[in-house]
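Why this split exists: single-chain examples teach little about how molecules sit against one another. For that reason, every record in the complexes split bundles all components of an assembly together and asks for one structure covering all of them. Below is a record exactly as it appears in the raw files.
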Amino acid sequence: MSQRKHPENVFRNLWNDSSAFMHQVAVTGIGILSCLGEGSTAHFEALEGGPLAPPDVSQFPPYAILPLATVDLTERVPKKSDQRQMERWQLMGVHAAGCALDDAGLNTAIQSKQVDMNLATNGGGREIDADEAILREISSVGSDLNALMMRKMRPSYFLSQLPNMLAGNIAVVHGVGGASRTFMGEEEAGVAALSTAVKRIAHGQSDIILVGGVQDAECVDRLIGMVIGGIAQSGPASRVANADRNGLLPGSLASFLVLESVAHARARNASIHAIISGLATDWSASEGECLQASYSKLIQRLSESCSAPRILSAACGLPARTRAEFDALAGLELPVSDITSTDILGHGMEAHFLGLITTAICKFRHGDASNMIAAMVGHRAGIAAALLGPAE
Amino acid sequence: MRDVVITGLGIVTAFGRGAEVNAVAMHSGNSAVSAITRFETDGLSTRIAASIDNLLPPDLLPVEMTEAIAVLAIEEAIAQSGLIDDGNLPAELVIGLPPLQMGWSDRFNLAEAAKRREVGYADLLKSAADPEFRRMHDRLRPGAITERLMAHYGIVGMPQTITTACSSGATAVIMATEAIRSGETDRVIVVASDASLSPEMLARFGKISALSTRNDDPGTASRPFDADRDGFVPGEGAAALVLETRSVALHRRASIMGVVEGIAEAADGYHRLRHQPDAQRIVDVMQNALTDAGLKPSDISYLNAHGTSTPENDRVEFLGCKAVFGELLPQIPVSSIKSMIGHTLSASGVIEVAASVLMLRDQVVYPTINVSKLDPDIQLDVVPDVARPAQLQHVLSNSFGFGGQNSCIVIGRDRQQD
């Protein structure tokens, strides 16, 4: 511990030696809501070459996004009083969380009460009308702004700005009552949400955890942040590997999984979709060849413990990072899926890694029982990969 | 299970920088609350805070201040722990932060660049493409603070950036404790920081009537458990802890300042802003923390309350304490340091664990100030106004947050300290 961790120690988060852990980690529920709609079927078909949703450049020209498919977001939030307390990103999250809990056979509050929660989101969103009304009247900070904010801003809107209020709403609507943790920080948030959940279950610190991430790509203030950073896709967009790609194509996405120990799942007769048998992350990997080498190594280390896994990538769509990721994958002697989860879902930011994992689980859900490595190079920093396999 | 010990701590509050500065001020029962001068407050219903005005240049944005005081706290904690800050810190990082958005000054700058009247978000989107605004990007990314801290200290591993509203700091301590207990890591730097004080923050909390409006008498505005409390007083601050396994700490001859003995969390699905009226989830989280620590209620010698000074929190927290401690409760001192440093929101959980460690070290209970008339519905020994010497062995610290977040941490004095 007193020694500096050298590059080869970046695998300290590697989790593929099941003998070192008390429990195997099973996925028993999935809930996914995206530009393709709800549920595993549409996403499975897209993986198999089925239709993809067309990016939209009309809503925020010249920037492209993948808007949410038409879904009744009130179906799982029947109370008007609950609906009024939520912005769309929260309704999306509560909906997908409900799907995942149902899929796992946890459909009463009593069953959900002992479930822990690890969520990844930036929350936020602005009260667009109030902001625009203020912008029309004044142009600097000061007492006029103060008075206008006191007058124009809705009290309830405060709730929809707090990232952890998604967890609050899931607790209220679905009765999830365990430890509740919300992570921030772009792709890193989703990776931390999944990896801490997997480790807690593996070490016996939790039996069952709802893991999820949400992004509403139709929030203009989120897009403004990406445009300021110079990372938003401008103009029409096809797949991440193609020459027309110049940035991230944000997609509206709510992606949820129920993870539990295999023993816990068996004890309640839950059906197991897949096992998460390895997880590796390196948040120090930076750019260029060093990035490629770290990424290759990360995947190789995961692949050592199983036979010929197929790789599903969530390459981000920024040209240089996507090229580095594909070059690294091409150098591995492993089969690589010719579509990425990003081509299906768009870029999910905090929800991005969970969107990847959930898409991969869709394959298991539809009977494809071969090993998979779901891997991602973050759009700024970090690499992460998970090894998924069938239930024994 | 591996023992998790505290070998370093750092605190920044409106009292100033450093654990000793804060220990003296809190021991003395001072108030750090004053009228806000950093920005224009006319038009707002709450114009007071415990802000960190004298520590940093006043023109820093909230996100910049939040990072700057996090660094001050981490540096103190590292120095105290005896670790060497040479850019190769052998530790992982768990950080509790508030959600930080674009501020109004940025929004006005984007609007001005649109060069037209009747500006709307479509115009802001157009302006945003100007590379002139590229430098704003890092301010809009919550992960940017974490990334810079990782790079600065040479921290490796998977960082965790946590936000659970006013429970964020406690959640960070809990997650770090779990990571060490499981053997995933031997050492974690836990930090939580919050300098999100801004006109919009005051307007938003003000609109849900969460804040005190005692603007004429700032020093007495934060009055947890008092009959006339009218809301919390926002505070700014940061705290950092070095947590490690006992064996690693002993091996490098670090001095042990305290032990994280018990941790627990319990989400409350009753309401987004309010506790279940019978305090059941507060009871659950306190009992689970005691169970986790292997302790009985009678082992607890002090309770560091969440005690925000809102009518709702303090009453329900008392009900929870009564249910857990029963007839023992009158013998247990219960105080809220928020009476002195305000409610430091996302940072409060770590600041309160750090304060608890100092109380254990000095065998003293910091007071609750401003309780001139105890709420008749709250029967607690709130240690009014004056610090009290006490024999402290195990103390319990509560943190609750909007969104049904409930956390509880038991901190103990180490046998090495006897």
